[in-house]
Amino acid sequence: MSAVVRVCRTEAGRFAAVMPDGSPLHARHSEIAALLRAALPETTAHLFARPMPAADGKSVDWVTPLPGQPVALTALPRDERAAIEKLLAERLAAIRGLAGRLPDAAAADLLRRAAVDPGAEQVYALNGQPVVVGWGQSGQFATVPPVVPPVAPAAALAEAAPRRSWLRWLFLLLLLLALAAAALFLLRRCQELPFGAEPPAVADDNLDDLRAKIRAAEDEIRRRLEQCAVPKAEEPVPPEPQPKVEEPAQAAPAPQPEKPVAPKAEKPKAEKPKATPQPQPEKPKKTACPPKRQPWEQPEVMLMLDASGSMRLPRDMADAEAESLIRRAMRGDRGAFGTLQGYQGGAGSRLAAAKTAMKEVVTQMPKEVDLGLLVFGKCEGTDNYNFFKASQRSALLGQVDRIKPEQGTPLARGLERAGNMLDGVNVPGVIVVVTDGEDSCHGDPCAVARALKQKKPNIKINVIGVGGSGKGRCMAEATGGKFVTPRSGQSWNDLLMQATEQQALPPGCE
Q: Which of 35, 157, 158, 378 could bridge 406 with an S-S bond, Cβ 3.0-4.6 Å?
């Protein structure tokens, strides 16, 4: 069984999420985790903490296989809290989407009951990953189980349906009667009659008299219109034409003899020297920003740095020369021993070159790539710094600066730890190993690489052999990766970026 981390401890009766049959929802954790692990990334499968009853029977421990120190969501700074809440919302949406795609109705209902929005006190963060305790229960912690209303039998529903229909029609009839009464009231008010009074009757004689008066008025209007005829507009009289006065014809000028025109001598045109075209500077091509990757496409990159004593040597010293110097020092050669003691890992050393390249890669790496750091330099263990979010990369740069050379090369142990932190199944993962030697702590890194590839087929190991030898090539070959060595004049920054299999973010892109 893999190691687990206790997130928090709560009272045994503090959560009461139940299924329709009354059984506790939390007892189905293994079934829920198996459904998520089969279709979603491993990090999403670990979203719900597993409940473990304590020995005293009065409390429950909520545990998770995610590494790190759990921190309550309410205790995080604002920016880190916002990032955790965003991840939580995305993973809950992914689980609900999976529930909508499952053909098994019971399994889909189980996921929907688990993926409700929790309260802030139910959420914790471990190395930038959200973990929910008391899942399946929305809002704040509760101590009273929710009341599930009983389901009415089909016969009762069938009997109640026509009764509700009859009541609905009765309500509509009463509403129409009320509207009719209101309309009658307004009509009587408009006629200025008291409510309930009948309108006065009109006699037929009065109607005949009214019609006669109307006809007489129409005849009078017609007669007056005929008397008021509009006069026709007079047509304008055109003016009389004026007689034209003929002007006396002017005498035509006498023809003048044409003067002979001497031909003009053409002057030779001086040819202008053609200007030599000047080469125009090429305009820099604008690099398009890469498209933003979806959450399931965002890769994980783990940087593994060798901090053994041999990394203090100069970066341009070959492995054969370094091994000869070390062997002579171990045989008691004081000159060789003094030479080794003079190398402290400062500027120009293998370690300094690797650290500079790592900091450059961290600065240029796209923000959606999860970056991790692991340092191996002593047989007692490795320094595992886990993953750093985009907002924490300044802390990652500071951690790289603080790396110092140690004694020992636990390459196999470091590779195993790095592989355990990567998903490698649903999310692609790349391990970049920067080393100048082989395992000096009785480990077999080649066997670890083969086992890691079999367990997590989406993992690749790329090795940078600092000293130029072929040590570590087997790790790359076992996972389909590459083994490269720095060549003369080659930039370590470019070499390390190529090993991550990511493209540096162009300037101006987010």
A: 378
Which pair of tokens denotes residue 250? 């002017």
Q: Give me the torsion for CA of 361, 364, 366, 372, rounded to 10°.
A: 30
DSSP code per residue over 272-288: PPPPPPPPPPPPPPPPP
Please state whether the predicted TM-score (pTM) of the whole model is above 0.70. Answer: no
Confidence of residue 274 (pLDDT cuts 50, 70, 90): low
Name residues whose C-beta falls within 8 Å of residue 401's C-beta, 6 or more positions apart in sequence: 355, 359
In 3D, which of 11, 118, 7 has the Cα closest to residue 63?
7
CB-CB contact of 440 with 408 (8 Å): yes
Strands 59-64 and 5-11, bridge-based pairing: antiparallel
pLDDT at 436 over 90: no
Rounded Cα distance, 389 and 372, in Å: 9
Enter the tokens of residue 255. Answer: 């023809």
Cα separation, 500 vs 302, in Å, equals 9
The CA distance from 217 to 211, in Å, is: 10
Q: Rounded mean pLDDT of 2-26?
A: 84
Helices 334-342 and 319-330 cross at an angle (nearest 10°) of 120
Maximum CA pair distance of the chain?
149
Nearest in space to 435 (alpha carbons), one of 393, 471, 480:
471
Tokens of 227: 């008397």
Phi, psi of 252 (to 5 degrees): -70, 140
Query: Where along the chain do its domains lie?
Result: 5-132, 296-500
Answer yes or no: CATH 3.40.50.410 is held by domain 296-500: yes
Bridge pairing between strands 300-306 and 429-435: parallel
The DSSP secondary-structure symbol of 234 reads P
pLDDT digits (tens, 9 = 90+) for 148-192: 334 444 444 344 444 445 556 556 666 666 666 665 555 555 444
| Single-letter code of the amino acid located at 417 | R
User: Per-residue pLDDT tens for 54-107?
Assistant: 887 789 999 999 988 999 999 999 999 999 999 999 999 999 999 999 999 999
